Amino acid sequence: MRFTKMHGCGNDYVYLDGFAERLPPDDELPALARALSDRHTGIGADGLILVLPSTIGDARMVMYNADGSASEMCGNGIRCAAKLAWDHRRVATHTPRIETGAGVLSVELRFADEACIGARVDMGRPRLSPAEVPVVHPGPGPLLELSLAAEGGEHRLLAVGMGNPHAVCFVDDPETFAVQAIGRALERHAAFPRRTNVEFVARLADEGGLPVLRQRTWERGSGETQACGTGACATVVAAILDRRIPGRQAIVRLNGGDLRVEWPHDAAAVTLDGPAVTVFAGEYPWTGT
Question: What is the pTM of this model?
Fold first, then answer.
């Protein structure tokens, strides 16, 4: 089967064009995701994303993490999915509507010299009640604060849903924080019935009049990744609710680059702006499970 390797700020996925490719049956897709994602014996990626026809949008995105588990949404992934749909001529508009597990989201493609280089995504409103995240919490929200034990310490977390669950942890220094050990433990904490992504965040010096938030991410089902778009959105929402930044927008600095996030007001959708890059394309000899 033909594939395309793509990334947004280093958050890399293998993409399959379901408009043209004959895909394996659904029950084989978790194993396919694991095989493709393996960085030693496969292509190497944070997961697998299928770009498919949609009856309610211009295209549909289906996502699997590197461990084969299904996921609702990926902010970096949707930018690349929209770029692939444009590059492969599956959509004819610069503003495609992409069906995801978190609903149908609007994308505005960005171009340089007629080539698609990124996108701005309407990520929908943040989910800020316990049932929406989901998280075990008395509520009602919007500030869903928890103190959870992991690896011998107590960690203050703010739960935010962006179509998938997030736990934002503000720390003194993300560079030296034990992201992998604590992220791994918190991902599967009983407080998060569908597991959770975990963001470890600190505010840096402002740039260009905007606050800069340094974020490292432990992604549910994939481990620490170079970037997480829904996590960047959750981080900015949490920083606003926790009064850690002025205004309603910020630059989020990830291992793999910067994303710009805005939440104009409490009832508004969050917007995410960042790059989408094709790395290479090829064929993979999948013979089934």
Answer: 0.93
